[in-house]
Design a protein that fits this description.
The protein is mostly beta strands and about 500 residues long. Helices cover about 5% and strands about 40% of the residues. Strands 1, 27, 28, 30, 32, 33 and 35 form a seven-stranded mixed sheet that branches. It has a six-stranded mixed sheet with strand order 2-29-37-36-31-34. The radius of gyration is 22 Å and the shape is globular.
Length: about 500
């Protein structure tokens, strides 16, 4: 097959994206058009994923307004089941997951299963893969879960992710467990909802005023704070300032404490669910042995501190030192941190001290792009059949963020065909980093010509380019977008479009 190159999205059969309200499917195009989410090809791919005798797990979720305690800070927000994060869903590789979502919010919602290579009509993107789940209605997601790993779920409706609507999804691998004794899931977040404004108000002001600032604020900052900057991230570290950052729904002043004995090996499953904040994570006095990124195993690598952009996940094993120690999450460029305390049962829980925080700031940082995929999950090293350039830029006038000079249009697509080896080339022309996330697939990062880690979300720094390869083996229509929720909602999204 000849390699094709595309420098901008192609418009392919607009009528394939007319939603059918009754079925939440998409109408089919004539021959040569898009493969719609409700197509037989999508159904067939799901049948192949479903293993004979697979276990089925059923879960009910309610999305509703809630009063939540962030650790001495009471907020009114939106959440799953009234708690933050929402209740963890834990299944095994190969299971069929069935989730019934009841929407008791005042507006439509959805659920995106971040990182899962699932069937396209269950991916949770209104206007692309399904209809909105209206207020007062119920929708059932059902799909096979093919890959083990650390994942999470959240809405793909406006800026709802920047409220309390997120929770871990852990897919267990029966072959895991030989190199650790116990697990700890830590979900990181930045928080403003219910404190001084809502995420919708933030987005409205950004679109109204651009980066000129918010009412009563200097360039979008809280009084006494400046906009976040980061040498590590190559420039701006965020567009919004936050009163709090959280670990498992708690501020640093009142952290979660988890019992852990000296010498115990703890597998940390780290999830960055933040809307606008990257985090440095480390444990003072102990090194991390990084084993997975975005759910997929990597060659183990030792690190003092790891960096997670929005939407990234990372697994690392830490051997608990003497006493009680914090797992620290430093908000990059923000002079804020969150923590979870590993508490020795014989020693009182002790939150982080300033010296420990400062120590972490000065340590080397491992970024996930420097990892290498474990041999068993590495993609074949071969030339791509098709290459798509995605030029990232912004903010334009009135806070527009673009891919290839365009804001998101679900009727535009980057065409691929089933069975192709596809390369995406992210080229960041802006002054801010972008965590670029591809739905429905896991790609392999090409690092300096070598094979890097398997991931679904990759940081693209200002003025830099990143190439990723993936196998086109999951038909449908899939978002590729920046996981800064404000960038995405302001236009930085495109569609990887399977065509006949």
């Amino acid at each position: 097959m000849d390699m094709a190159t595309s420098n901008s999205p192609g418009r392919i059969c607009r009528r394939s994206f007319l939603l059918l309200a009754a079925t939440a499917g998409l109408t089919a195009c004539a021959s040569g058009g898009r493969v719609p989410p409700g197509s037989e090809r999508v159904a067939e791919a799901e049948r192949v994923r479903r293993l004979a005798g697979a276990r089925s797990t059923s879960v009910t979720l309610v999305a509703a307004t809630a009063e939540v305690d962030l650790g001495g800070v009471q907020v009114h927000t939106w959440a799953y089941g009234g708690q933050l994060p929402g209740r963890e869903i834990r299944v095994r590789r190969g299971d069929v997951l069935k989730v019934e979502l009841t929407n008791q919010l005042p507006e439509p919602t959805s659920i995106h299963w971040h990182g899962i290579a699932l069937r396209n009509d269950m991916d949770g993107v209104p206007g692309l893969t399904q209809s909105d789940i209206g207020a007062g209605t119920t929708f059932t997601y059902e799909f096979a879960v093919p890959d083990a790993g650390t994942y999470f779920f959240h809405p793909h409706s406006g800026v709802q992710l920047d409220r309390g609507l997120y929770a871990p999804l852990i897919v267990e691998d029966p072959d895991d467990g030989a190199d650790y004794d116990t697990e700890l899931v830590i979900v990181l977040d930045d928080w403003l909802d219910g404190v001084d404004r809502t995420p919708d108000a933030v987005l409205d002001e950004l679109k109204k005023n651009g980066m000129g600032g918010m009412p009563g604020m200097d360039h979008g900052s809280m009084p006494g704070m400046s906009m976040p900057k980061s040498e590590l991230l190559g420039g701006d570290a965020g567009d919004v300032t936050y009163p709090h950052v959280l670990a498992n729904g708690r501020t640093f002043r009142d952290p979660q404490a988890v019992e852990a004995k000296e010498g115990q090996r703890v597998r940390l499953r780290l999830i960055n669910a933040a809307a606008d904040t990257a985090f440095r994570v480390g444990v003072p006095g102990a090194r991390l042995r990084v084993t997975h990124t975005d759910g997929f195993p990597s060659r183990p690598q030792e690190a003092d501190v790891v960096l997670l952009g929005m939407g990234e996940r990372l697994d690392a094993v830490v051997t608990v030192p003497a006493g009680s120690v914090p797992v620290l999450a430093l908000a990059e460029g923000r002079d804020q941190y969150a923590q979870v305390v590993l508490r020795n049962p014989d020693v009182p829980a002790k939150p982080a001290e300033d010296a420990q925080v400062k120590q972490l700031v000065g340590l080397p940082v491992l970024m996930a792009t420097s990892l290498r995929a474990a041999d068993r999950v590495a993609l074949p090293d071969k030339q791509p059949d098709v290459v798509h350039d995605l030029v990232l830029d912004g903010p334009g006038d009135k806070y527009t963020w673009t891919i290839n000079g365009k804001v998101y249009d679900p009727n535009d697509g980057l065409p691929v065909e089933q069975g192709q080896h596809v390369r995406l080339k992210f080229d960041n022309k802006s002054r801010m980093f972008h965590p670029m996330h591809l739905h429905g697939h896991t790609f392999q990062v090409r690092a300096d010509g070598n094979s890097g880690p398997r991931k679904d979300t990759v940081l693209v720094l200002p003025g830099r380019s990143v190439e990723v390869d993936f196998a086109a083996d999951n038909p449908g229509q899939w978002l590729a977008h920046c996981h800064n929720v404000y960038h995405g909602e302001a236009g930085m999204m495109s569609v990887v479009s399977y065509v006949e």
